[in-house]
Structures are given as structure tokens and as C-alpha cells.
Amino acid sequence: TTDYGPSRPDRSNLGLNPEACRSIWVKVTNNLQQVLRAEDTLARMGGDEFVVILSDIGTPEECTLILDRILAAARQTVVLEGHPPIQISASVGVSLYPADNADPDTLLRHADQAMYLAKQAGKNRYQLFDPEIDRQAQLHRLQLEWLRQALLQRQFVLFYQPKVDLINGQVLGVEALIRWQHPTQGLLAPGAFLPYVQGSELEQHLGEWVIETALAQATVWRQSGLHMQVSVNISANHLLQPGFCQQLGAALARHPDVAPDQFELEVLETAAISDMAQAAAILHQCKALGVKFALDDFGTGYSSLTYLRKLPVDTLKIDQSFVRDMLTDSDDLGIVEGVIRLANAFQRHVIAEGVETLAHGTALRELGCRFAQGYGIAKPMAAEQIPTWCATWALEPRP
Ligand code: C2E
Ligand code: CA
Ligand code: CA
Question: Which of 163, 316, 347, 391 is the residue whose CA sits 20 to 30 A from 385?
Fold first, then answer.
């Protein structure tokens, strides 16, 4: 399939009156016909879309030659009396029979997809349909659909991982971490399904579910006398959605037993934030509700310093990739130290994640990082286990 044109809403009229426009397409069609063989078929599908059926193509080279000829023909300047000369460009998508599929509708759809890629790649070019890209896209759609169903069927659960104070041993709070209780595959970690959600509408719905569920859980704990901060992870995409703050305010209002300053949002994928002023405005607006913010995975990505300076966050969370090797890798130790100093300089709290051993905890405390979270303290667990864990932890001897 071939698609022409400067991209404006209705590309097919080329900004001309219908009569002139018709003449142009007739001329373009003639130009195309010149380079096609007798056995080929050329059809205008309407608008600026053409379909060419090339038969008996023996080799990829032969195909390339014809496509180059088609592109060149399409580029020819068209002259219409009383108008300035017009030059248009074409984007060509190609599907091959029988490699791509046997049924005509699918072949057309594949050619269309490829044409879209040709257009994205900068027009005036052709693109062969790639079955692998198509397979991926289909899988992605399918996964999203399953995830949508999973949300409706309440298959997601939140696990909670404690955060503690390394100096006095107190439990600071817990971080909610999503899991998918899959009907056949068992409990799935977010790495297995969140990537499919990224950038989709579902990302927001799932994020809202997380906030709602964590607040409901915090209410239960609070009513049973367990006071602690509850944190949720929030994707930058979701945070930047219009109305985020209103939604958050409404959710907090539905759970009046939870003090807003006991609710924290860990902002993920800050690298995805392109409009810093907008992000800062949203954070300020949310902070007026009383909630706290942390920058998650701090130290990864490139612009962490800008985020730190511009965004009103309370806490930096040192990424576990640095914490893990800090005892053996002096570069990672340097980063950990650097983030701790940075947090001090900017008067932010700092917490280390991925604290796997007592030695890590001790080293962090000596470096001035007071708060920690990690398998060495506790793994993420079901909400029901948290009260018992807290009670047991309180009895543990401190180093
Ligand atoms: P994260 O926010 O950086 O969370 C920390 C991850 O490290 C969690 O993995 C946690 O289980 C794991 N972890 C904690 N302590 C240790 C440790 O000592 N050693 C090691 N090796 N790992 C540790 P999990 O639960 O698989 O979550 C992975 C990521 O998925 C999270 O990274 C977060 O980015 C995302 N995520 C989790 N829950 C949610 C959610 O509700 N919403 C959104 N948007 N993202 C979420
Ligand atoms: Ca987190
Ligand atoms: Ca992390």
C-alpha cells in the first residue's frame, strides 16, 4: 500500500479544490502506471491511499527495484495549469505472499502496518512487513487484555515490605508491592506484567487500584492499633495524568482514618518526566493534601540532580543496584555516599533499598543513612503477616 502526502488532517485534498485534486491524483496514477508492468495491478483505495499488487516477483532484489521505481514515480513533480508545481512523497508498506499470510485482508492489514512504520521513519521510503514485530504487537495486546480481565476479577494483590530505622530499630512503614495471583501460573512479580501496562490506559486504572487498596489496608492496620506509614509506587505516567491530584484527594477522603502524612508516593521512572514544571506543579498540589513523596531508584537515569532540585520530594531512595555491591565495589560505595550527602545538603530523608545483610545495614548506618529496607530485614509479605512481623521484630536484639 502507498500513502501520500504532507500530513495534514485531510491529506487527500492536498489543499486544493476537488476538481484540481482529482486531476492531480489522475496524474500521479499515470506516473505510477508508467513504472508498473502489464501484469501488475494499481488501485486507488480512496483518499491518498493506493494499493499495488505486484505478481511474479522472483527475488528480493527484483522487489527492491520495483519499489524504488514506484517511489521515484511518486516523487515526480506534478504540474497543473494555474497552480504552482506540486511535489508529493510516498510511504510504502509491503507484505509478501505467501510469507506474511495467505488471506488478502491480512496481507492488506500487514502492508498497512508496514506503511505506518515507513511514515514514522520519515516518509519517501518503503518498509517490509516484519512478522516478528507483528507477533510482539499481538502478544502485547493480548497481555493487556488479560491484565484488564485480571483487574476486573480481582486477581491483583499487594504485598508489603517493611522499612526500618537502623538507629532505634523502629518500623517506619511498609511499601506496597503489587503481585498478580495468576489462576494457573501462581504468584507473579511485577516484572512479569507491569511492562505490558506501561503507557496504556490500564496503567492509570491499576495505579488507582493500588492507591485505593493500600489506603484500605492502612485503615485496617490503623484500626487495629498499628501506626505506620504506607508507601505505594506510582509511575511517572500516572502521576502526570490530568486530575491525578483530585483523584488522590478523593481516595484520601474515602479513607479518613489514614493521616495523609502517613501516606507516601514513591515516584518511578522519573526519566519519563519531560515537563519538569508540570511535574513540580502536580507534586506541590498533592503535597498540599499532606502526602509525602520519595524519588524511587535514585541514582539511576541521567538527570537525578535536576529532579532533586526541582521536585518537592521528602525522601531519596537509593537504588538497590548500588546498595547490593557497596561492600565490594568502591564505585557503588561512592554513589551511595554521594546520594546520602546530597540528601543531607538538600535536607531530604534518605532510605536504602535492597539491604540484604546485616553488614550492609551497619555500613549504611555508619555512612549516615538511617532508614533501610531489604531482604536482610524482611521480604515483601502478605498484609496479614505484617502485624506478626512487627511484633516479632520489636523483640529482636539490636546490633
Ligand atoms: P521498586 O519500587 O524499586 O521495589 C523494590 C523491588 O526490589 C521489589 O521487587 C522488592 O521485592 C525487591 N527487593 C526488596 N528488597 C530486596 C533485596 O534486599 N534484594 C533484592 N534483590 N530485591 C529486593 P518487586 O516487588 O518485584 O517490584 C519490582 C518493581 O516493580 C518495583 O521496584 C517497582 O518499580 C514496580 N512496582 C511494584 N509494585 C508496583 C505498583 O504497585 N505500582 C507500580 N507502578 N509499580 C510497582
Ligand atoms: Ca519503590
Ligand atoms: Ca529500585
Answer: 316
255 vs 23 pLDDT, higher one: 255
Question: Could you tell which of 163, 204, 233 is best to mutate to test the pocket of ligand 1, judged by most ligand atoms within 8 Å of the CB?
Answer: 233
Query: Looking at residues 135-156, what average pLDDT do you find?
Result: 93
| pLDDT given at position 137 | 83
How does pLDDT run across 318-357, given as a tens digit for each residue? 999 999 999 999 999 999 999 999 999 999 999 999 999 9
Asked if 296 and 267 count as a contact pair (C-beta separation under 8 A), the reply is yes
pTM: 0.79
Residues with CB under 6 A from ligand 1: 161, 176-178, 189-191, 194, 207, 210, 232-235, 266, 268, 296-297, 320, 353-356, 374-375, 380
CA neighbor of 219 nearest in space, from 275, 159, 259, 171: 259
CA-nearest residue for atom 38, ligand 1, is 177
For ion ligand 3, residues whose CB falls within 5 Å: 297, 319
Tell me, in angstroms, the distance from the centre of ligand 2 to residue 297's CA. 7
SS3 379: coil
Which of residues 279 and 14 earns the better pLDDT score?
A: 279
Question: How many CB atoms within 10 Å of residue 71?
Answer: 20
Taking only Cα atoms into account, the Rg of the chain, rounded to an integer number of angstroms, comes to: 29
Distances (CA, A) of 373 to 151, 329, 360, 370: 28, 20, 11, 11
Q: How confident is the model at residue 167 (pLDDT cuts 50, 70, 90)?
A: very high
Ligand 1 pocket: which of 266, 353, 356 to mutate (most atoms within 8 A of CB)? 353
